[in-house]
Amino acid sequence: MQSQGQLTHLELENLRHLIGDHGTVANKLDAYAQACQDPQLKQIFQRDAQQARASQQKLMGFLH
Question: How does pLDDT run across 3-13, given as a tens digit for each residue?
């Protein structure tokens, strides 16, 4: 029986995938920002990369 607050194996695997996906998205957005010539668009990519990393960190909090 699972106690409240514990993740099932499936939930844990899904969480790990989400964490990895957020990291991948952040890295791609950083790469897009580096390649971008338009300053406004570059800023958008950088901001979105930061948000993806922040979400990744929040999700990692569920692993502890």
Answer: 456 889 999 99
